[in-house]
């Protein structure tokens, strides 16, 4: 793997490096406008020292051609330390396989390895940046925000930390501990090894981690109402919202209508330029 390594000097300002992971599966469609807007909004809003794009299969298409000159691209190798045979053990795991979402779990591990080695900010590709991330977020050994509690296999709600936006200094102990535990905790479910495990690790007091307010990054949550407010209606956005997570795995294909009737095919340039929906109104300023 062509891995980025930290170049921080002692006492120097923490670098504003951003990391994105994409293309772990074959690319059979042009790079989508939503992904372009994630990277372009990061570039315009956050004044980054560098935007690092980690991929296995390079994207293609006009939106990719437009953003690529602004990126530091790094090709990653094949393989994952997670035991993929565990998907077959649960109905949730079987759904993840059938929906073609297993690449997301490989990305769960890869993003932590990148932050451990290089530091900076990791963000999912379905992020829209709204206001500049403060410099101090890049100085914490590890920083991550809460999300809504998640139900375990017995239906009990457990605390959860969302790994869609994370900050770390190189060699973060929290990142290293999470990486170490992830293969053991992976059970084929969506987040037992990721968001749920991160929350459990907070009990280990020697691990330095700052828990950030959820609304900074997750103003719109995982519900039909929130997704409708984001993509189909006009909703108020608090002045202290820094970025918006789109939860794209819940609505991206047209057949996935259990959370939203909106889908990727509707998120077009015309939609962004003309719709009064919350997402479109925020995103259109990044279409130049």
Characterise this structure.
The chain is α/β, with parallel strands linked by helices and 288 residues long. It has one domain: Alpha-Beta Complex (Spore Coat Polysaccharide Biosynthesis Protein SpsA, Chain A), CATH 3.90.550. The strands form two sheets. A seven-stranded mixed sheet has the order 3-2-1-4-7-6-8, sandwiched between helices. The chain has a two-stranded antiparallel sheet with strand order 5-9. Helix 4 packs antiparallel against helix 5. The longest helix has 16 residues. The radius of gyration is 18 Å and the shape is globular. The mean pLDDT is 89.
Based on the model shown, name its key terms.
single chain; about 290 residues; alpha/beta; Spore Coat Polysaccharide Biosynthesis Protein SpsA, Chain A; 7-stranded mixed sheet; two-stranded antiparallel ribbon
Q: Into which percent range does the helicity of residues fall?
A: 25-40%
Radius of gyration: 18 Å
**Helix/strand/pairing class, anyone?**
alpha/beta
Query: Number of DSSP helices?
Result: 9
Largest sheet: 7 strands, mixed
Subunit organisation of the chains: single chain
- What is the domain total for the residues? 1
CATH class category:
Alpha Beta
Strand proportion: 15-25%
How far apart lie the N and C ends? 34 Å
